[in-house]
Write a structure and sequence with these properties.
Blueprint: H1 11-16, H2 21-38, H3 44-48, H4 56-64, H5 83-95, H6 101-117, H7 120-131, E1 137-140, E2 156-160, E3 163-170, E4 181-187, E5 199-205, E6 211-217, E7 223-236, E8 240-241, H8 247-253, H9 255-260, H10 269-279, H11 285-313, H12 319-343, H13 355-370, H14 377-387
Parallel strand pairs: 1-4
Antiparallel strand pairs: 2-3, 3-7, 4-5, 5-8, 6-7
The structure holds flavin-adenine dinucleotide.
Residues 138-142, 147-148, 172-174, 369, 372-373, 376, 378-379, 382 line the site of flavin-adenine dinucleotide.
Length: 391
Amino acid sequence: MSHSSDKQLSSSEQADGRFFGEQLDDFRLEVRSILAKLLAGRSVADGAASWMGADTSFSRALAAQGLIGISWPEKYGGGGRSLLFRHVLTEELLAAGAPAAAHWVADRQVGPMLLRFGTEEQRAMFLPRIIAADIFFCIGLSEPDAGSDLASVRTRASLAEGGYRVSGTKLWTSGAHISQYMLTLCRTSDSGSHRHAGLSQFIIPLDSPGITIRPVLMHSGEHHFNEVILDDCFVPSTLRVGAEGQGWAQVTSELGIERSGPERYLSTFPLLRQIVSELEGDPGEAAIDAIGQAAAHLLTLHQMSQAVAELLHAGGDPNVAAAIVKDLGADFEQMIPEIGMRLIDAAPMPESADPYASALAKTLTYAPAISLRGGTREVLRGIVARDLGLR
Ligand SMILES: Cc1cc2nc3c(=O)[nH]c(=O)nc-3n(C[C@H](O)[C@H](O)[C@H](O)COP(=O)(O)OP(=O)(O)OC[C@H]3O[C@@H](n4cnc5c(N)ncnc54)[C@H](O)[C@@H]3O)c2cc1C
């Protein structure tokens, strides 16, 4: 995987990069100690929810420590640090099993999207409030007939006086029920011969007239997903993000960030930690082998993901590398509960007082989603195949 050479990095960037790794190490220890305080008393099962777990008060406490939007410009209240610091922060949040879902997509996608494509007015309106965890966002891409095939979105935004009227249905919208805004991909004109044409993005306030949010419960009964129905909902032109018709290019430009981060290999880390703690003392040879292999995979994924962060930092195009990180990371994350079940004789029990049994149950509930969310396994492999000239 390629990354920037010394020559391409300016001296301030070098201060952030691997040559000045002590700064990142210091930051890691600082974050670890903040999280130890903020998360004291939480159960192992809560931690196993990983970034599916939402707790708005945790997000606010993190914001109070200056840990949301840390790579955004200081003039909006951001931390002004490089993406490499964000990478470290994300690793620590996930390793600690922090319930970061409430602010997750705003921090990862919405902020960077506004910094790249938004107007100055939009940045001033939203970024400081995201950084303070005053507002939360969800992402409205998927629809009943548009998941992997995102270009078939049918939610339509039609021109009206001063803005657009939006109608359609979004599905699998994580966290819409705790968010104030949805970054929404809509069709603004017919695609014609080019199926990626005619799409645009909007920030839609979820309290607008014409919006209904319906829960879609998981088989465990948990409320994570929603169906968001938009019925002739008015959105002012000032809330369109980027130029009309540029939605596809904008959405796909963020995929490198979305697919390469630590959330693609650390989602089940809290269970791995618990497995190690269960086996402590007298692990046996099979356990030593399995945990050793898992640790080696983890370190490799960490290095691959960090290389993509460095590539992003240097302005490179990481989409294929990110697809590989996500595909290999999903295999790794789904392997962790299997290792636990092979090595430890305990059944998964959601409400058990045994921390391992309850963490295993939680992880097993979420594990199938890992190779679906953010691009399915087949779709990712299709991207790699295309890059190799195989399709
Ligand atoms: C935990 C989780 C959170 C999510 N959060 C959000 C969210 O907040 N906002 C949002 O908009 N969406 C969200 N999604 C939806 C997610 O993006 C979609 O589930 C995903 O894009 C797959 O779409 P689909 O479910 O319609 O499956 P489909 O696209 O119908 O795919 C079904 C199966 O067919 C395979 N397949 C599809 N196309 C091809 C192809 N061309 N070649 C080979 N095989 C193919 C797929 O790999 C898959 O196995 C979330 C999903 C999960 C699991």
